[in-house]
Design goal:
- By secondary structure, the chain is an alpha+beta fold.
- The protein has one domain: minor pseudopilin epsh domain (minor pseudopilin epsh fold, 3-Layer(bab) Sandwich), CATH 3.55.40.
- It has 1 helix and 8 strands, in the order αββββββββ.
- Strands 3-2-1-5 form a 4-stranded antiparallel β-sheet, with helices on one face.
Length: 194
């Protein structure tokens, strides 16, 4: 008598059904993990560029500006105005430049120090509070922000992201950026920067 090894069709179908069921159960948590990663990456990039602009202003002894742009990776980018393409704010990207003449505008002879392309994984990054400018942060040679009347908040993540995944980045009058936290010390998107 011959002994056959292998799987029967029924056994294979049962295994495929179990794998499919596990994939269906894992999909929602996988989506949340991807969204959380997208928010964290965007917030970390923004805060790193805020710190970079501040330290470059101190190092260069001159004005350095971080500004929102609709085309930050262009050969000669321009600072954007308003809330950007589609009203989604900072998700269109930003760049940092050395403002040699101190006018807060990017001139042809002023070098771009760093650029961040569009954040395609986010739906919005909008100003939520305070501040006199939602499109530019200009640092002085001492590392302080110019013309920022009160703390400003930028909300990363909008309607496409659950509230517990959204993040609020607070920029103080002194020029330091931090992620807002709730009463339990967890990062949050619905706190206040005051």
């Amino acid at each position: 008598m011959k002994k056959y090894t292998g799987f029967t069709l029924i056994e294979l179908m049962v295994v495929i059904a179990i794998v499919a069921l596990m994939a269906v159960l894992a999909a929602p948590s996988f989506k949340q993990m991807i969204q959380s990663s997208a928010i964290s990456s965007a917030v970390n990039s923004f805060m790193a560029d805020m710190r970079f602009a501040r330290s470059e202003a101190i190092r260069r002894g001159g004005s350095v500006v971080l500004c929102r742009s609709n085309s930050p990776e262009a050969t000669d980018p321009n600072c954007g105005t308003g809330s950007g393409t589609g009203g989604n704010g900072w998700v269109t990207g930003w760049f940092v430049f050395h403002d040699l003449d101190g006018d807060k505008g990017k001139d042809a002879n002023e070098p771009v120090l760093r650029a961040q392309g569009p954040l395609t994984s986010l739906d919005s990054a909008l100003e939520t509070s305070g501040g006199s400018s939602s499109t530019k942060f200009r640092f002085t040679p001492t590392g302080r922000l110019v013309s920022l009347g009160s703390a400003t908040g930028i909300q990363f993540g909008g309607a496409d992201f659950p509230t517990e995944q959204q993040r609020l980045v607070c920029i103080s009058v002194g020029g330091r950026a931090r992620v807002a936290v709730d009463a339990n010390g967890k990062p949050t998107g619905d706190a206040s920067c005051n």
